[in-house]
Design a protein that fits this description.
The protein is α/β, with parallel strands linked by helices. The protein is built from eight helices and ten strands. The chain has one domain. This is DUF1853 family protein.
Length: about 300
Amino acid sequence: MDEYYKNQFVRDLAWVISSPSLFNSLPNSNHSLILSEDFFEYEFKHLKALLERLDNDPSLLEIHIQSGNNRLLGKYFESLAEFWFLNSERFDLIDKSVQININGDTKGEFDFILRDKINNRFLHLEAAGKFYLSAANSVSWETFIGPNPNDNLENKMYKLLNEQIYLSKTVSGKNKLIELGIDELDPALLLKGYFFYHLNNFLTNDFSIPEYANPNHNKGWWIRFGEIEKLFDLNSNQWIILKRMNWISKALTKNLNDVIDTNTLLIFLHSYFEFNHYPILIASVRKNGEHFIEVSRGFIVSDLWPDLNFTH
């Protein structure tokens, strides 16, 4: 649904609304935390006209994004989700980024507090857009590691399922809700993103998805720098190097200068990894009419990954 919008911001917004969740169930009877596919289909259907108007004139969305601190991809994701809820027919956005403090220390925050106009209940929504690479072709969450290996799926889900969703049950959380005039919140998770599998497994469709993951989640591949000759296995000679703020929706461009061939890509990667260790995300693209559109995407990681320590 997202790839047909020509504006990057609009494409990203459509992706946040319509892309599949990373999970469709959770351990320990937490299934109710997962928003259903019907939820996203309903929201996308009722926002489609707005998306089309924004694609012709994105100024309203651009002003919203530029008004916040969106230099980090996670903050950009939250900004897109905020714009969604501000324009939703079904939900009122009551508050966002509500910090819970105990003795001056921040113990967590409610990402979004929404009121469902259909049933008049309040929703505490934790929102995250995440990218994890399968380091061991295992279902174990701890083997799904971020481009920055300080982040992994196990730690993220532990924090969400054991801390964040229970904020409304803490004394400080309850006091904050009283301030907002809310008696009770229903917690829910908005988890979108991609899981990336080693190219060997990706090409043979022989990969293990994380336990409880949605089989229809967005997928990509990854290889180490020392394996870059494997790029020829993708039978593509057209590539786009994706800047981090363009990681969300599928790559789309009309600009021929954005597209490079495989040999040029290899030269770039050799130069980049001579001085850098942070993973690079690239997209294989093909010509479709006047546009180049994404076929698949993958990370090129350092030969040392994940045994690296990044501060960003």
